[in-house]
Amino acid sequence: MSPEEKTVDRTVRVLVPEYRQEPLEHLYADLQFPEILHRPYLYLNMVATLDGAAHLMGRTKGMGGEADRLAFRRLREYCDIVLVGAGTVRAERYGPPRLDAEAQVRRRRRGLEPLPRLAVVSARLHLDPALQLFSDPDRRPLVITTEDADPARRGALEAVAEVVACGRGTVDLPSALRWLRTRGARWVLCEGGPTLNGKLLAAGLVDELFLTLAPLLAGGGAGRIVAGGSLAPVRLHLRELREHQGELLARYTVIP
Ligand SMILES: NC(=O)c1ccc[n+]([C@@H]2O[C@H](COP(=O)([O-])OP(=O)(O)OC[C@H]3O[C@@H](n4cnc5c(N)ncnc54)[C@H](OP(=O)(O)O)[C@@H]3O)[C@@H](O)[C@H]2O)c1
Fold first, then answer.
1. Element holding 74 (H helix, E strand)
2. pTM given for the model
């Protein structure tokens, strides 16, 4: 280990909009997201390696460093709903979203519930009701599925979650988001994965992307952060860029 690696680096270099240094603890500590009327404002948070891999051997574990892990927690402080696809729930072994007591106080000050609610998108409902994410009866997640989903699977999940149907065959994401808005959700954080991201982007439902570029090369056949059929190129504006220990943390706005 080199001497530099032994020193704890608690400083983040802000490269865009202008160079400055800030304590690591300031990372995404004071974000403001707009409120829109017809659907929730939706921001994505993803991590990728330098060669574009969205996972290492099927999971994101080991990709992000300290700043990425802090960003992951901080971005959960601004949303009503954490939205994920069923593939991510299965691969990443999701539990109910957790935040420390101070983060919960900050959420309350912003007019949010102390903790965000988890919403899982799934057509096939291959989700075991014994999964950890269904373990807290006081914080039942939402499962967003289709009208023609398997009735037995749906019935089993209704014991541990609120199940809502939007669309047939595949979840109609614009309707699902409109429905969430009618239920009071102003801000949705989507934590992936790539299939869900692709569908949200194709439907024009993504407003921002927070992307951590980890200083790693993965090789192999790992998928990218957006999957699915071809997408008309989505253009983004680089709004902020930070560096911490070689990790680049970018905030992009989708150009409508
Ligand atoms: N790099 C990162 O930041 C990051 C973040 C998250 C995940 N990942 C990685 O991504 C991989 C998983 O990829 P993935 O593409 O399978 O994840 P995913 O998008 O979370 O899951 C795909 C599944 O979500 C459901 N789904 C998504 N959109 C739907 C729609 N419109 N209608 C109905 N169902 C819909 C389907 O579930 P059913 O099959 O149940 O119908 C589909 O099979 C894992 O290796 C994970 O580690 C990486």
1. helix 66-75
2. 0.96
